[in-house]
Design brief:
14 strands, five-stranded mixed β-sheet, 171 residues, DUF4352 domain-containing protein, five-stranded antiparallel β-sheet, mainly beta
């Protein structure tokens, strides 16, 4: 893992021709089956992990408990992952030109959600892939930055640009 991806980036797997993964749609969201009692006082958010096969053969994939790590805030504290409300990819064959998406619900202190790091280690055909990291945050400015706002606004502009580029290919 040389450098992190930005939320919305695709990461290709060299060892599995045509297979790629991305973390995207990081946003505030309430879980569909109600809040977990352990998340009292925390702010819920949701993200999606999509695995796409652009190769010529199908792959059996797994993305489940223990293969996703979410860290929040400047100290990289662990987010609460709501396993009951999340939807994983458990033993699914992704055929050529098809996708499979996991929907993950997590929670953390609202002040820490401006910085969210998501690490994924996919299992393909019973083999573990490399771990990859995506960096993003909730509440990043969607519009143009204010002049003279400094490095933080430049990071927001870059993140928004990359997210827009990644979303164009999914419509």
């Amino acid at each position: 893992m040389c450098e992190p991806n930005v939320v919305g980036d695709w990461q290709e797997y060299d060892e599995h021709a045509g297979l790629r993964v991305r973390v995207h749609r990081l946003e505030n969201a309430e879980p569909p089956r109600g809040r977990d009692d352990a998340a009292a006082g925390l702010t819920y958010f949701c993200l999606r992990v999509t695995v796409e096969n652009r190769g010529e053969r199908h792959y059996g994939i797994h993305l489940e408990d223990g293969q996703i790590d979410i860290r929040i805030g400047p100290d990289g504290e662990s987010a609460f992952i709501d396993w009951r409300n999340s939807q994983f990819i458990e033993g699914f064959d992704v055929y050529p030109l098809r996708r499979a998406t996991a929907v993950i619900y997590a929670a953390g202190p609202e002040a820490s959600l401006g910085q969210v790091d998501v690490q994924i280690q996919l299992r393909v055909e019973e083999e573990w892939t490399d771990r990859w990291l995506w960096a993003g945050g909730i509440g990043l400015a969607e519009g143009p930055s204010q002049p003279g706002a400094g490095r933080e606004c430049l990071a927001h502009e870059i993140s928004n640009f990359l997210r827009d580029q990644a979303e164009e290919g999914t419509a």
